[in-house]
Design goal:
It is built from two helices and 18 strands. The protein is mainly β. Strands 3, 4, 6, 7, 10, 12, 14, 15, 16, 17 and 18 form an eleven-stranded mixed sheet that branches. A five-stranded mixed sheet has the order 1-5-13-9-11, with no helix packed on it. It has a two-stranded parallel ribbon with strand order 2-8. The longest helix is centred in the first third of the chain and has 22 residues.
Amino acid sequence: MAALLAAALAGTVTTIVSDTATSGITRITAPREPFTWVKRINPDKLYGNCSRQYMVVSDRAPRDMPPFDEGSWDDWRRETRGVDHGLTHVELTLQGRSAEATVLQGMRVRVVKRAGPAAGSVYAGVSEVTCNTSDQAQRNLYADLDTGDRITPMPAYDGRSPSAKPANGTSEPGDHQAARENERGEILSFPYRITDSDPEVIDVGVETGDCDCSWVLELDWAGGGESGTVTIDDGGRPFRTTASATKGVGYLVYDWDTHEWKGKSASSEGG
């Protein structure tokens, strides 16, 4: 009996190690993190612009593609078997379990698989999303998957660009120093401090123009005499963001009058 139990345990350990090696996802945490977190993928409430165009790459033919679902971009992505085209937003709400502070020390985007852009048609939905008028500050970060496999997100105005919007209301691309503050003038750099009464909302915009990339977020923390790294993924799988293999051919939008997908030129593309 002891021999059988030892063999079963050995098999279980081998499976765990094998799964970790093949998935590229590891979790290094304390037995219980001193904080909780809630994740939303491509949330319809974003800090800044109140109208967004969301795109997926899908191998489904237009006749088999369901209309854009304004209720949930992420539900529409899953229904269409689509992949986020160019940009994925991950919003994290983090809150301590007690009055004792936990320090969020830093974050990385780690690419676990990189391939050429995915083939398929690009489908777009446009939504007048709800503006974020809450008093809760939202920290906006940006990462470019085309720059490497371990990326430290930069503070950003809206999670889409590493540029801030200066006080005069104009955008200055490439002004990374200005991007340290959002429109409320709040410093965005790590570390952040959270307690049960002082949460943080972090929106990470992850973008690519060149790859089909699978990736995870790694969040370092310290508190209660312990430290660790929480790995955040898409329900047990890496997030996935892709450029289009057919650049320059445009994309399709749904015509509610004719109930069909129709093409638009690439010059009309926006986001």
